[in-house]
Fold:
Amino acid sequence: ALPDHTNEIKSTPRSAVNPPTLNRSFRGNNRDQSVPMDNSMAVSRNGFIISAINTNVIFTNPAGIITYEKAFSDFFTLLSLGTRMYDPRVIYDVEQNRFIFMCLNGSDPTSTHLCLAFSKTEDPNGEWHYYKVDGNPSGDNRWFDYPNVGVSKNDLYIAGLMRDIPGDWQYSVLYQIDKNAGFAGEDLTFKYYNELKNADNAPSFNLVPTPSAWDYLSDPGMYFVSNEALGGDTYNLYYTTASLNDNPSLISLQTKGLATQLAPDGRQKNNTNVLNTFDSRIWSALYHNGTIHMGGHVNTPNGDVGLLYGRMDVANVVFEADVLTDAGLDYAFPSFSAYGKNENDAEILVNYLVSGVDLLPGQEQRACHGLGAEFLWSDPVRLRDGASAVNVLNDNNERWGDYTTSCRRFINNRVETWVTGCFGEGGSYGTWLGQYVNEDEFETKTMAEFVADKTTVTKNTEITFTDLTQKNPTAWSWTFEGGVPQTSNDQNPKVVFPTDGAYDVKLIVTNDLGSDTLTKIDFIHIQDPITSPVAEFMVDIDTIFRNDTARYTSLSSENTINHKWTFQSGSPMTSTLKNPIIRYNTAGSFVASLTVSNIAGSNTKTKTKYITVLNRSAPTADFIADKTIIMAGEPVTFADASTGGPRERVWTFEGGSPSSSTQKNPVVIYNQDGLYEVSLQVTNEFGENTAIKTGYIQVGQVGTNDVALISNAKLYPNPISGGKITMEFDTDKTQKMSFRLYDAQGKLVRVLYEDKVKAGYNVFSFNADMLVNGSYFLNISNNIGQVKTITLLVNHP
Structure:
């Protein structure tokens, strides 16, 4: 039986701990026409802030200066998905020291995608890697909604709900993604957990990842929590058993706890419009010291919207909870962050939205201290008072959330947490960001802070550094790694950096409270300007038969971020892979095109009649070898040069090892001197044919009557990167000779020469510009069966 930890909503101590201290605050994102606001944000160690609402994203610094502002469709323009983007989520990876930003695209089964971006450095003003992930890998009639995100040491987790066409929830899913591939710009791999179940085998609802609250990440997996959408006393705990590369599985556990009821709608002062609380799901969670802190909003005995704050002891699967409630006030959409002076302090900052009978919608925060069932609350601090009621939609039911965010910044061993949410303003919504610090540190320290007007620029660009330290500092001592000047005592110095790289900046400030030092590691990024990529590609074989495949390889410049291929008559006809494999089912000569792009622009390479697809016919067997005169123990590579499109091959190698093969281009070793026969039988649905070459392979010295076909042969340059290639050789007599060039698959590329060759020294040239990169065989033969093969390597830049 499940342990019974059900308890009633109780009166918990207020004013039991000091309230959080608000230090800085400023306006966040500006709303357009979208609802709800869906506020999400993250802050890095050096104070880079990414803040997003349902339509746009901004980058800002601790002074509130916005350095970037774009609609999602502009930020994710490389994905070419259009403008239907929403539900942003931002997370800072404290170990990789970089950001992950995502939103959703599309709201039907055919267009649903997860749009992902991984920053290349801590500075979001620099470059990103962009990805789109199918929002419905199972291929049923569902689409992805309500993302919840978290990162572990190796993986990114994205949980969500799958909806049907009318928009009703059907089941929950989870993506476990290799985050290191995303940070490296490599192809993403992931595991998709579909139609999740609770421990009682009921469908799971709304899994919420529990990212680490401190400056390290969980390993190897992650915990998740959920509850019942309409309230109840059942709470679910899940965890992944391993990182993605170690074959993980998802385990479900369950316990009982505080019984809750569906929250009512929030009220607004002097207004009949209500604020939709949607449901009583868990809206936010984090993991800290063996406990998961989580919360949502529920009904209270007085009919107010109460804030549910729960703690899950993961070792014992025990759930304890408290409901913050005050008569006439409504609290909703909480988020949490660690607020203690050190890792072992049991203090959490709780961020939430507030409204009420006599209150306009605003943003509020409290500290809460305690372990287990002990909840010691502080008095509230109002980050932003509402300036008006919300009156956006046509009826009297307004959207209120759906999210707030609270996240700790780990710098200088100080207590610092940033929050965001929405408030009523101008009949609509506003967004406000705030920084909370420890009261003792605020009163007794100078708490150094600074920003730069540019953080990712080209070398020798002048950068202005601005001191933001409060409490009137009287002296400044700056150190600029790699900068000119390297030091300064100005309050707001100007510096240039002449060499590419990432550089630390240190500031020591002094006032009557003493001195404080702040070092921002790798704060300034100096790099060459971003340029548009250059498209180029090749195909492994440019003449194939119907229903065969061809592998395309991008040879585009290294600064390429995204690939977009188009294949006339190919299957598929488009691809975003770097090196796609395409099947052709129709005969003809077809166009292939590649567009590559990065944040600076795009470039397209189109090749007409680039690939030829032939109808199969009765095959005619033929083959070549890379060499026909060898020493014992030397390997020989054979290449099928048959026509007609054979589907099956049977080789026979007299004296060879192996003595037979069904490969297209087998490698054979001959261990005994002698002359050996080689045969190849080829077959397809139209017939079969056999080619036999007697005495084709000469191993060792066979006899004095055998005269070399040519001598002193030279083929240069080899490898060749383009232009003219020259062949020099001697022959002992005038004779008719054939010079044929084959590719690595044994297909005839070109007849270079076929006529009489004079005795003595000979030379001829041909152009290699039209050859795609790869290996080739120059096959030289005469009319009495003598053959010589020379390998040629083409490697265009």
The longest strand covers residues 601-614.
